[in-house]
Design a protein that fits this description.
This protein is mainly alpha-helical. It contains 6 helices and no strands.
Length: 143
């Protein structure tokens, strides 16, 4: 899968992950808890849907739902070695985040599992970003 921007360079994605981790730890972000949880839930829901599509081998749907497929590809790209059953972890994360957003009581171990998933993704993105060479002058297109 080819992204328009490398995920490690996507500042917005990293902010959503960082703020989502803060919310799960009980820290109120400047953007507001509901807004952060909504953005985070959207990412995880799309990734879970992308996993379901690939599991059903419905590639036509994958082409029609490019964001879901790209979000799942993001998790696979950075976390496939970290988790044995990544689609199951995404489904659990979606359920937990939905319950947290609704204000329901959620077991602390469920929150910790989501936190671990998001923290590992954020760490992988930041590690890749720090190892990426800076662009040279000829990489820029001046017009």
């Amino acid at each position: 899968m080819r992204f328009e921007m490398e995920p490690s360079q996507d500042l917005g994605l990293r902010h959503v992950l960082r703020n989502g981790i803060s919310v799960l730890k009980g820290i109120e972000p400047p953007q507001g808890r509901d807004r952060v949880l909504h953005g985070l839930l959207e990412i995880v829901t799309d990734a879970d849907r992308g996993a379901d599509v690939l599991n059903a081998q419905n590639l036509t749907f994958a082409l029609d739902n490019k964001p879901a497929f790209e979000r799942f590809s993001l998790f696979v790209r950075y976390l496939s070695d970290a988790f044995a059953d990544l689609p199951a972890r995404l489904a659990e994360a979606k359920t937990t985040l939905t319950r947290v957003e609704a204000g329901e009581d959620v077991q602390q171990e469920d929150v910790q599992q989501v936190n671990e998933l998001l923290t590992r993704l954020l760490e992988a993105l930041e590690r890749e970003r720090s190892l990426t060479p800076l662009p040279t002058m000829r990489d820029y297109n001046f017009q």
